[in-house]
Amino acid sequence: MHAPGRLRARRPWLPLVGAALAVAVVCALGMWRPWIVPSAPVAVEAESAAVSSAPPALALPDQPRVLVFGDSWVYGSAATVPSLGFAYLLADHLGGETIVDGVRGSGYLKPGLDGGSYGERVAALDPAVDPDLIIVEGSINDRRLPAKGYGDAVNAVWDSLTSLYPDAAIVILGPAPQVLPVEPATARIDDDLAALAAERGWWYVSPLDENWITPENYLQIIDTGEIGRDHPSTAGHAYLAERVAAAIAAMSEATDVVADAPLDEDIVAP
């Protein structure tokens, strides 16, 4: 209660302060805008990172020596004879020689029917082979095993290969679907291998992502009978050899995106 006869002192600056504070709050919110998720800058950064981390083009000799390492698909299972498997046929497509090392049932973690796991088999490779290129295929044989420890096993195999053949280029060929739809565990293996290869700056080929085997061509590629047991048929192996050769050719022709950009002196004024 105010004393009678006294007027409160007026504070004409209060409305001005309030207005200034309101403007400051509005400006701050305008700059912060927590409800807006940045998208364009992130996309640009991701795209730049993808370009900068792209593997370099393969530089293979005219008659390359290629080690094809993998499971029963590399072995040539379900072909009329194993030598009609895609790994053998690849030699003609690449104009060189393939050294085929395929073991049925083998994987990065799983021992095979005629040999050990990938790690055990790499340890037994001949250092004198001296390949120009190594293609590591598969493997769907790991799909029934726990995912824990898979990445460590893969890295151990790849480290052993680079130590044994330090001058060889390495391409990772992911698992192809033996059944459709693709089993979740096979898709998980494909994703894991792709990520691990990217960390090393290696080329990765994904038959799953590139739709090599679809409902439309499945029965022309995969032998579902008692003998084939969901492995590529002779015709299927021939098809796979063509797809792998085309992938290798594309890697050999790959160039840096920046290198294709015109230089200032190359631009002709209209």
Which keywords apply here?
single chain; Rossmann fold; alpha/beta; disordered C terminus; 270 residues; disordered N terminus; five-stranded parallel sheet; 40% helix
Tell me briefly what this model is:
By secondary structure, the protein is an alpha/beta fold. The protein is 40% helix and 11% strand. The chain has a single domain (65-253), classed as 3-Layer(aba) Sandwich (Rossmann fold), CATH 3.40.50.1110.
| Overall pLDDT confidence | 82
Q: How many distinct helices? A: 9
Query: What topology, given as strand order, has the largest sheet?
Result: 2-1-3-4-5
Radius of gyration: 30 Å
Tell me the structural class. Answer: alpha/beta
Report on the biggest sheet.
5 strands, parallel
Strand content: 5-15%
Number of E-type strands: 7
Text of the CATH class = Alpha Beta
The CATH level-2 architecture is identified as 3-Layer(aba) Sandwich
Share of helical residues = 40-55%
**Which consecutive residue ranges, at least 5 long each, have pLDDT under 50?**
1-52, 256-270
CATH homologous superfamily name?
SGNH hydrolase
Stated plainly, the CATH topology is called Rossmann fold
Helix-strand sequence: HHEHHEHEHEHEHEEH
Write down the overall geometry: globular
* Number of structural domains: 1
Distance between the termini: 85 Å
